[in-house]
Design brief:
By secondary structure, the chain is an alpha+beta fold. The chain folds into three domains: about 1-150, Beta-Lactamase (2-Layer Sandwich), CATH 3.30.450; about 230-295, Signal transduction histidine kinase, dimerisation/phosphotransfer (DHp) domain (Helix Hairpins); about 305-450, Heat Shock Protein 90 (2-Layer Sandwich). It has helices at about 1-50, 60-75, 90-95, 100-110, 145-195, 210-260, 265-295, 310-325, 345-360, 415-425; strands at about 55, 60, 75-80, 85-90, 120-125, 130-140, 305, 330, 340-345, 365-375, 375-385, 430-435, 440-445. The chain starts with a helix and ends in a 6-residue tail after the last strand. It comes from Candidatus Nitrobium versatile. Keywords: ATP-binding, Cell membrane, Kinase, Membrane, Nucleotide-binding, Phosphoprotein, Transferase, Transmembrane, Transmembrane helix, Two-component regulatory system.
Length: about 450
């Protein structure tokens, strides 16, 4: 890609240089046409003045002398021939009649004595009758004193200098710019190769805000997602292996004991095996739940406007029968109408899991749902009157498969870990306050970007 970009710049530079040459050619051509036109205008003015110097069948030498003097000033060597072929007057005759100072200046301008070449002939007419002939040729001049030649030389020098500056500068810019453009692409290529080798920690630093910068940010988000997914997969496989090992070991032990006759009551042994099978089924169901949850971690859900009061009340109405079966109350605080923009599917899973967790650990009293604004964040709070969580175990409750010691609820320890990961995916945070035998309070904060 670097080579292609560099060659593209070279092509542009070559086109620019070619256009400079064309421009120079056109300028010189226009200048030559202009000079030729001016000289033609001057010559025909001289021709007209010479014809005007003939009157009454004779030439007026004073008028002719002035006209030839002016013609010499514009670089013309003039001879006037009458109709009989005799010379009337010439540039040399006029020059000899000048003062010494004027003659010196004329010699400085022209090499009069060295002027050679044939004359061009132009007939002179008066009232349709030829009265003579004008012979003309250019005087030989010093090259450096030719203004048109000086202009052409300077124009040529300007073109060459501009080509050198523009071409050299463009070449340097092409090298630097191609390097600048391809560097982030090269970094992306190297990073992609590391991702392919399993290094998901690689990130690209990009300060630009153009399309390449956006591509780098997208790559970083992809790498972060892959890293998190790989971490979740490794962690999940480790936890699954650990959780499966215990019931399988118990089942194997009981089955061997039954076969060896160690356990005389085969029915009791089969009950234990059946209990462990139920535990395995529950574990598989939990794995399915967390797999479904993880799929939502990486899917970009649609954000819609939600009335939090109606949303939480509807969710509470759905779950209230479960709380009544256990003799518990489930209430929702009455607040002012609050609208936020959020991923409803993720938000519902978060609140439902927290409520399910509260239902498991609450034996009397009830659970209350509250919501509102705190600073720049919006919060949803679920508080219960359950058994509470020991202070030293609060930092651990969001770990997968972690269960509070002595809880005895038969859970897998997956609900709160799913809650925390979903909250982080939504860009929020979760806080826990709890006291043993008094209850727990879970508060989820959603960033103001999710609120209207």
């Amino acid at each position: 890609m670097k080579t292609k970009i560099f060659l593209a710049f070279i092509a542009v530079i070559t086109a620019a240089l070619f256009s400079n040459f064309v421009f120079h050619w056109l300028i010189i051509k226009d200048f030559d046409n202009y000079v030729k036109g001016v000289k033609e205008d001057q010559f025909y003015w001289v021709l007209a003045m010479v014809e005007d110097s003939y009157d009454g069948g004779r030439w007026h030498r004073t008028a002719l002398s002035e006209t030839i003097h002016w013609a010499m000033m514009i670089g013309l060597d003039i001879r006037i021939i009458d109709k009989d072929g005799g010379e009337v007057i010439s540039s040399h005759e006029v020059l000899d009649s000048l003062s010494g100072t004027m003659m010196k200046r004329m010699h400085d301008l022209f090499h009069i004595q060295k002027t050679t070449g044939s004359f061009e002939r132009y007939p002179l007419y008066l009232k349709g009758e030829q009265v003579g002939t004008l012979l003309t040729r250019p005087f030989q001049k010093e090259a450096l004193q030719e203004k048109e030649l000086i202009f052409k030389e300077r124009a040529k020098d300007f073109i060459y200098i501009s080509l050198l500056i523009a071409g050299g500068g463009a070449l340097i810019i092409a090298l630097l710019f191609s390097q600048y453009l391809t560097k982030p692409i090269t970094l992306l290529k190297d990073a992609a190769e590391k991702i392919a080798k399993g290094d998901f920690s690689i990130r690209i630093r990009s300060r630009s805000r153009d399309e390449v910068g956006e591509l780098s940010e997208s790559f970083n988000r992809m790498a972060a997602s892959l890293q998190k997914e790989e971490s979740l997969r490794t962690h999940l496989m480790s936890n699954i292996a650990h959780e499966l090992r215990t019931p399988l070991t118990i089942m194997k032990t009981h089955s061997e004991a039954v076969m060896d006759g160690v356990i005389e009551d085969c029915g009791k042994g089969m009950e234990n095996i059946h209990a462990e099978i139920d535990r395995l089924i529950k574990l598989v169901k939990g794995i399915e739940d967390i797999t479904t949850a993880e799929a939502s971690f990486f899917s970009k859900g649609e954000k819609v406007e939600v009335d939090m009061g109606e949303f939480l009340s509807g969710l509470a109405d759905e779950m209230r029968p479960l709380f009544r079966e256990k003799g518990l109350s489930l209430t929702t605080a009455a607040r002012e109408r609050a609208l936020i923009v959020a991923d409803v599917e993720k938000l519902e899973r978060i609140v439902r899991n927290i409520l399910s967790n509260a239902l498991k650990y609450t034996e009397k009293g009830g659970v209350q749902i509250d919501y509102g604004k705190q600073g720049d964040d919006f919060f949803v709070e679920v508080s219960d009157s359950g058994r509470g969580i020991p202070e030293q175990e609060i930092p651990l409750i969001f770990n997968r498969f972690y269960r509070v010691e002595g809880s005895g609820n038969g859970g897998l320890g997956l609900g709160l870990s799913i809650v925390k990961e979903l909250v982080e995916v939504m860009g929020g945070r979760i806080e826990v306050r709890s006291r043993v035998n008094e209850g727990s309070c879970f508060r989820v904060y959603l960033h103001q970007g999710d609120r209207r």
